[in-house]
Design brief:
alpha/beta; Rossmann fold; 7 strands; globular
Protein backbone atom coordinates (compact mmCIF):
# COMPACT_ATOMS: atom_id res chain seq x y z
CA UNK A 1 0.00 0.00 0.00
CA UNK A 2 1.16 3.57 -0.66
CA UNK A 3 1.51 6.45 1.78
CA UNK A 4 -1.70 8.47 2.37
CA UNK A 5 -2.04 11.58 0.23
CA UNK A 6 -4.59 14.37 0.07
CA UNK A 7 -5.78 13.73 3.62
CA UNK A 8 -6.25 15.91 6.68
CA UNK A 9 -4.19 14.26 9.42
CA UNK A 10 -3.70 15.26 13.05
CA UNK A 11 -0.60 14.06 14.88
CA UNK A 12 0.05 14.54 18.59
CA UNK A 13 3.48 14.33 20.18
CA UNK A 14 4.79 15.74 16.92
CA UNK A 15 7.63 17.96 18.09
CA UNK A 16 10.27 15.19 18.10
CA UNK A 17 10.91 11.51 17.47
CA UNK A 18 8.45 9.42 15.51
CA UNK A 19 5.74 12.07 15.57
CA UNK A 20 7.97 14.63 13.94
CA UNK A 21 9.24 12.20 11.32
CA UNK A 22 5.73 11.03 10.45
CA UNK A 23 4.47 14.61 10.18
CA UNK A 24 7.25 15.64 7.80
CA UNK A 25 6.85 12.55 5.62
CA UNK A 26 3.07 12.84 5.44
CA UNK A 27 3.26 16.54 4.58
CA UNK A 28 5.80 15.77 1.88
CA UNK A 29 3.38 13.17 0.47
CA UNK A 30 0.73 15.85 -0.06
CA UNK A 31 -1.32 15.73 3.13
CA UNK A 32 -2.47 18.61 5.32
CA UNK A 33 -0.93 17.79 8.68
CA UNK A 34 -1.94 19.39 11.98
CA UNK A 35 0.72 18.91 14.64
CA UNK A 36 0.31 19.12 18.41
CA UNK A 37 2.81 19.19 21.26
CA UNK A 38 3.70 21.45 24.16
CA UNK A 39 6.78 22.84 22.40
CA UNK A 40 5.33 25.64 20.28
CA UNK A 41 8.75 26.65 18.95
CA UNK A 42 9.48 23.15 17.65
CA UNK A 43 6.10 23.00 15.92
CA UNK A 44 6.60 26.38 14.28
CA UNK A 45 10.02 25.26 13.10
CA UNK A 46 8.40 22.28 11.40
CA UNK A 47 5.77 24.50 9.80
CA UNK A 48 8.56 26.67 8.39
CA UNK A 49 10.01 23.56 6.75
CA UNK A 50 6.79 22.62 4.94
CA UNK A 51 3.64 24.57 4.06
CA UNK A 52 1.50 21.47 4.63
CA UNK A 53 2.20 21.51 8.38
CA UNK A 54 0.05 23.57 10.78
CA UNK A 55 0.95 23.92 14.48
CA UNK A 56 -1.78 23.34 17.08
CA UNK A 57 0.18 23.60 20.35
CA UNK A 58 -1.41 22.16 23.50
CA UNK A 59 -0.53 20.41 26.74
CA UNK A 60 -2.32 17.06 26.63
CA UNK A 61 -1.53 16.39 30.29
CA UNK A 62 -3.89 19.24 31.21
CA UNK A 63 -7.31 17.77 32.13
CA UNK A 64 -8.99 20.94 30.83
CA UNK A 65 -7.40 20.93 27.38
CA UNK A 66 -10.24 19.25 25.46
CA UNK A 67 -12.38 22.33 24.75
CA UNK A 68 -9.29 24.36 23.88
CA UNK A 69 -8.13 21.60 21.50
CA UNK A 70 -11.54 21.35 19.84
CA UNK A 71 -11.61 25.09 19.18
CA UNK A 72 -8.01 25.13 17.97
CA UNK A 73 -8.55 22.27 15.54
CA UNK A 74 -11.72 23.83 14.15
CA UNK A 75 -9.81 26.99 13.31
CA UNK A 76 -7.91 24.97 10.72
CA UNK A 77 -10.26 22.21 9.55
CA UNK A 78 -13.85 21.00 9.82
CA UNK A 79 -12.97 17.37 9.16
CA UNK A 80 -10.20 14.85 9.82
CA UNK A 81 -9.32 11.71 7.85
CA UNK A 82 -6.79 10.36 10.31
CA UNK A 83 -5.64 10.91 13.88
CA UNK A 84 -2.24 9.65 15.03
CA UNK A 85 -2.13 9.76 18.84
CA UNK A 86 1.59 9.62 19.45
CA UNK A 87 2.21 11.83 22.51
CA UNK A 88 4.06 9.90 25.19
CA UNK A 89 6.53 9.99 28.04
CA UNK A 90 8.49 7.45 30.06
CA UNK A 91 9.74 7.27 33.64
CA UNK A 92 11.06 4.25 35.50
CA UNK A 93 10.22 3.11 39.02
CA UNK A 94 13.10 2.79 41.49
CA UNK A 95 11.58 0.38 43.97
CA UNK A 96 14.05 1.20 46.77
CA UNK A 97 13.18 4.90 46.53
CA UNK A 98 9.82 5.01 44.76
CA UNK A 99 8.26 8.16 43.37
CA UNK A 100 4.60 7.15 43.39
CA UNK A 101 3.47 10.45 41.86
CA UNK A 102 5.33 9.38 38.74
CA UNK A 103 2.52 6.88 38.05
CA UNK A 104 0.07 9.74 37.62
CA UNK A 105 2.47 11.79 35.49
CA UNK A 106 3.04 8.97 33.02
CA UNK A 107 -0.60 7.93 32.88
CA UNK A 108 -1.68 11.55 32.39
CA UNK A 109 0.24 11.76 29.12
CA UNK A 110 0.31 8.23 27.74
CA UNK A 111 -3.26 7.23 28.52
CA UNK A 112 -5.37 10.25 29.44
CA UNK A 113 -3.54 12.43 26.91
CA UNK A 114 -4.72 10.07 24.18
CA UNK A 115 -8.26 10.05 25.58
CA UNK A 116 -8.35 13.85 25.66
CA UNK A 117 -7.09 13.97 22.08
CA UNK A 118 -9.73 11.48 21.04
CA UNK A 119 -12.45 13.53 22.71
CA UNK A 120 -11.29 16.60 20.78
CA UNK A 121 -10.71 14.96 17.40
CA UNK A 122 -13.33 12.24 17.05
CA UNK A 123 -16.18 14.65 16.21
CA UNK A 124 -14.11 15.99 13.29
CA UNK A 125 -13.36 12.45 12.15
CA UNK A 126 -17.07 11.64 12.21
CA UNK A 127 -17.80 14.75 10.11
CA UNK A 128 -15.96 13.14 7.20
CA UNK A 129 -18.66 11.02 5.57
CA UNK A 130 -16.34 9.51 2.98
CA UNK A 131 -12.84 8.12 2.93
CA UNK A 132 -10.91 5.74 5.14
CA UNK A 133 -11.38 7.27 8.57
CA UNK A 134 -8.67 6.04 10.88
CA UNK A 135 -7.53 6.40 14.49
CA UNK A 136 -3.94 5.38 15.18
CA UNK A 137 -2.64 5.11 18.75
CA UNK A 138 1.04 4.56 19.46
CA UNK A 139 1.41 1.97 22.19
CA UNK A 140 4.47 -0.14 22.90
CA UNK A 141 5.78 -3.68 22.76
CA UNK A 142 6.48 -3.18 26.48
CA UNK A 143 2.79 -3.71 27.23
CA UNK A 144 2.92 -7.30 25.95
CA UNK A 145 5.18 -8.67 28.71
CA UNK A 146 6.60 -7.37 31.98
CA UNK A 147 9.87 -5.45 32.13
CA UNK A 148 11.84 -4.34 35.20
CA UNK A 149 11.08 -0.81 36.45
CA UNK A 150 8.45 -0.36 33.71
CA UNK A 151 5.39 -0.43 35.99
CA UNK A 152 4.22 3.06 35.01
CA UNK A 153 5.13 3.03 31.33
CA UNK A 154 3.97 -0.53 30.64
CA UNK A 155 0.71 -0.08 32.52
CA UNK A 156 -0.08 3.16 30.67
CA UNK A 157 0.52 1.54 27.29
CA UNK A 158 -1.44 -1.57 28.26
CA UNK A 159 -4.38 0.63 29.28
CA UNK A 160 -4.14 2.53 26.00
CA UNK A 161 -4.03 -0.69 23.98
CA UNK A 162 -7.08 -2.19 25.70
CA UNK A 163 -9.04 1.05 25.32
CA UNK A 164 -8.27 1.31 21.60
CA UNK A 165 -9.02 -2.35 20.91
CA UNK A 166 -12.38 -1.93 22.64
CA UNK A 167 -13.03 1.34 20.79
CA UNK A 168 -12.42 -0.48 17.51
CA UNK A 169 -15.43 -2.70 18.25
CA UNK A 170 -17.69 0.26 19.03
CA UNK A 171 -16.71 2.20 15.88
CA UNK A 172 -16.65 -0.70 13.42
CA UNK A 173 -20.18 -0.11 12.12
CA UNK A 174 -19.26 3.51 11.32
CA UNK A 175 -16.34 2.43 9.13
CA UNK A 176 -13.87 4.10 11.49
CA UNK A 177 -10.92 1.79 11.96
CA UNK A 178 -8.59 1.80 14.93
CA UNK A 179 -4.96 0.69 14.83
CA UNK A 180 -2.51 0.27 17.70
CA UNK A 181 1.14 0.76 16.78
CA UNK A 182 3.46 -1.25 19.03
CA UNK A 183 7.08 -0.37 18.29
CA UNK A 184 10.12 -1.74 20.03
CA UNK A 185 13.05 0.44 20.99
CA UNK A 186 13.33 3.49 18.72
CA UNK A 187 16.21 5.96 18.81
CA UNK A 188 14.43 9.12 19.98
CA UNK A 189 15.02 11.83 22.60
CA UNK A 190 12.85 9.74 24.94
CA UNK A 191 15.12 6.69 24.77
CA UNK A 192 18.41 8.60 24.88
CA UNK A 193 18.38 8.52 28.68
CA UNK A 194 17.74 4.77 28.95
CA UNK A 195 20.46 3.19 31.07
CA UNK A 196 20.01 -0.40 29.91
CA UNK A 197 20.61 -2.37 26.69
CA UNK A 198 17.95 -1.85 24.02
CA UNK A 199 17.88 -4.90 21.73
CA UNK A 200 16.88 -4.44 18.09
CA UNK A 201 17.14 -0.64 18.43
CA UNK A 202 15.72 1.11 15.35
CA UNK A 203 16.23 4.59 13.94
CA UNK A 204 13.34 7.04 13.71
CA UNK A 205 13.50 6.75 9.90
CA UNK A 206 13.09 2.98 10.09
CA UNK A 207 10.21 3.22 12.53
CA UNK A 208 8.34 5.80 10.44
CA UNK A 209 8.86 3.67 7.34
CA UNK A 210 7.32 0.63 9.06
CA UNK A 211 4.27 2.63 10.13
CA UNK A 212 3.69 4.30 6.77
CA UNK A 213 3.94 1.01 4.89
CA UNK A 214 0.99 -0.32 6.89
CA UNK A 215 -1.08 2.80 7.44
CA UNK A 216 -3.34 2.61 4.38
CA UNK A 217 -4.42 -0.94 5.22
CA UNK A 218 -5.70 0.22 8.64
CA UNK A 219 -4.69 -3.00 10.44
CA UNK A 220 -5.60 -3.78 14.05
CA UNK A 221 -1.94 -3.81 15.09
CA UNK A 222 1.32 -2.55 13.62
CA UNK A 223 4.14 -4.31 15.48
CA UNK A 224 7.84 -3.98 14.76
CA UNK A 225 10.61 -4.94 14.56
CA UNK A 226 9.66 -8.52 13.69
CA UNK A 227 12.61 -9.95 15.64
CA UNK A 228 11.55 -8.37 18.94
CA UNK A 229 7.87 -9.02 18.30
CA UNK A 230 8.57 -12.72 17.82
CA UNK A 231 10.51 -12.95 21.08
CA UNK A 232 7.76 -11.15 23.00
CA UNK A 233 5.07 -13.33 21.42
CA UNK A 234 6.79 -16.34 22.98
CA UNK A 235 7.13 -14.47 26.28
CA UNK A 236 3.43 -13.60 26.35
CA UNK A 237 2.53 -17.22 25.55
CA UNK A 238 4.77 -18.50 28.37
CA UNK A 239 4.47 -15.72 30.98
CA UNK A 240 5.87 -17.81 33.84
CA UNK A 241 9.04 -18.42 31.85
CA UNK A 242 9.39 -14.74 30.98
CA UNK A 243 8.75 -13.51 34.54
CA UNK A 244 11.04 -16.00 36.27
CA UNK A 245 13.88 -16.41 33.78
CA UNK A 246 14.00 -13.64 31.18
CA UNK A 247 12.74 -10.47 32.90
CA UNK A 248 15.13 -10.72 35.88
CA UNK A 249 18.08 -10.76 33.46
CA UNK A 250 16.95 -7.43 31.99
CA UNK A 251 17.46 -5.55 35.25
CA UNK A 252 19.87 -2.64 34.94
Amino acid sequence: MTTPTGEKIWITGASSGMGRELALRLAEAGNEVLVTARNREALESMAAMHSGITPVPADLSDPDCVVFLQESLKQHTQVLDRMILNAGTCEYLEIDDPDWQMMERVMSVNYFGAIRSLAAGLPLLKQHSTGARHIVAVGSQASRVVFPRAEAYGASKAALTYFMESLAVDLADQNIRVSVVQPGFVETPLTESNDFPMPFLMSVDQAAEHILKRLMARPTHIRFPWSLSSVLAIGSTLPWLWRNWVAPKLTR
